[in-house]
Backbone:
């Protein structure tokens, strides 16, 4: 393959193609924690034509291609193969247009999410996608994994924001679907094939996303509840009282909140301990009305016994303080150590059972284990991270996965709520999808990528891992 990669470099130039031995280590892995792997070559194209040419060459030679964005995924979808090339979209970093009349932003796949958010805000608009990795994740990766985040309860998953895509297929064919209209019902909605496909069907190069008027008013509450049943009743009450103003509803069970608030030194906004902790946020266009609606909800929830204690933020500084523990997972390595992370979806009615059973089963199997549970309960998303202290870097991953994914399957949940399947969940895809569904996915894959060069051995791809 040395001749092939050298030909790539000669064709596209050293600025675009870097050969093995010179590839920076940051491209050898993502956040999944798989063994670092240096690919044959790194391609960093800056134009759609270059992506098309690179893919056409790899298609002809049968060389695997792994697309990479901001490398913030935890499922291994961006993990390289030693016998393939990595294609990074980081140079597709231009925001091409913001149309405040149509409510759209047109941008390259390599634009950092926070950059897009700030650009929209400068125009008085808002991009409704928001995740913890906003400062480093890229739009292409957000769409390729159909990311969720903190505002799904109000604005939906990543796919709910997409109007148009430009995608390059495995053989180099460019699909120009840069639609800017909210209504376009001419034939199949092809963009949906690529959103959430983790780069197995085509590589997203550019996108058109919906924007919303930026609500200037915000009210943030931090509440302590007795148990999960009270949290679910509070969610129902919040939806009824706040309607479309409800923008975030996050829950932290004691396992997560007590451990991380102490471990990080951030402490708690509340006196005493509770059975569950909720961050509730409302946004609107009238500060008094937004604050009033939140206060009325808080008062009624307290009267009805749904809330034991709580505080409302009175400044941006206080808002950030209320979110601090929830946004502390970046401190896991320091506070918790090596871990096995989970991003599952559980029917809301079974959320309490899921948390109780998972934490108990892990403790039964590994008495010293620390299992932390939290998530975006308003959209059925549960995050669990597990650390077995004495195991060090050799965490008993298979045994823990068997427990968590087994309970998730029994409760009718999904093994992936917002981080995709990638390399580390492919053996568990059948826990959440039927054989017929997986077969159909593979049929589509074979039609669009007959040689199987795009992200092989990931997600629903039938290929064997390298």
Residues:
């Amino acid at each position: 393959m040395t001749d092939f990669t050298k030909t790539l470099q000669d064709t596209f130039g050293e600025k675009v193609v870097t050969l093995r031995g010179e590839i920076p280590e940051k491209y050898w892995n993502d956040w999944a924690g798989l063994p670092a792997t240096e690919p044959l070559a790194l391609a960093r194209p800056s134009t759609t034509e270059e992506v098309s040419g690179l893919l056409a060459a790899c298609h002809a030679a049968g060389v695997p291609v792994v697309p990479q964005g901001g490398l913030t995924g935890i499922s291994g979808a961006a993990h390289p193969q030693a016998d393939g090339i990595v294609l990074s979209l980081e140079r597709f970093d231009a925001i091409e247009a913001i149309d405040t009349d149509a409510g759209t932003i047109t941008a390259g796949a390599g634009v950092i999410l926070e950059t897009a958010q700030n650009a929209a805000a400068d125009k008085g608009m808002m991009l409704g996608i928001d995740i913890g990795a906003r400062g480093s994740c890229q739009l292409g990766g957000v769409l390729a994994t159909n990311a969720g985040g903190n505002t799904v309860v109000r604005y939906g998953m990543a796919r709910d924001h997409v109007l148009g895509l430009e995608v390059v297929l495995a053989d180099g064919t460019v699909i120009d679907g840069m639609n800017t209209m909210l209504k376009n019902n001419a034939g199949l909605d092809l963009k949906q094939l690529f959103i959430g496909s983790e780069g197995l069907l085509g590589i997203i190069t550019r996108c058109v996303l919906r924007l919303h008027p930026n609500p200037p008013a915000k009210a943030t509450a931090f509440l302590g509840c007795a148990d999960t049943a009270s949290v679910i009743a509070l969610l129902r009450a919040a939806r009824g009282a706040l309607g479309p103003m409800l923008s975030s509803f996050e829950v932290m069970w004691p396992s997560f909140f007590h451990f991380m608030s102490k471990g990080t030194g951030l402490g708690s906004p509340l006196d005493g301990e509770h059975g569950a902790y909720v961050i509730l946020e409302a946004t609107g266009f009238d500060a008094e009305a937004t604050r009033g609606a939140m206060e009325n909800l808080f008062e009624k929830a307290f009267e009805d016994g749904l809330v034991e204690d709580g505080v409302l933020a009175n400044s941006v500084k206080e808002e950030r303080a209320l979110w601090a523990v929830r946004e502390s997972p970046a401190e896991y390595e320091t506070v918790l150590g090596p871990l096995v992370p989970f991003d599952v979806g559980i029917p809301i009615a079974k959320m309490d059972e899921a948390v109780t059973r998972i934490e108990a089963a892990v403790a039964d199997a590994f008495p010293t284990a620390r299992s932390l549970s939290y998530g975006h309960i308003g959209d059925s998303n549960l995050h669990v991270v597990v650390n077995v202290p004495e195991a060090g870097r050799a965490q008993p991953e298979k045994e823990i996965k068997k427990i968590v994914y087994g309970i998730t399957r029994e409760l009718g949940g999904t093994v992936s709520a917002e981080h995709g399947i990638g390399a580390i969940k492919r053996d568990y895809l059948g826990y959440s999808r039927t054989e017929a569904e997986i077969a159909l996915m593979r049929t589509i894959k074979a039609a669009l990528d007959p040689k199987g060069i795009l992200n092989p051995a990931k997600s629903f791809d039938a290929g064997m891992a390298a």
Summary: The longest strand covers residues 217-225. The chain has four domains: 2-90, 95-213, 217-323, 336-418.
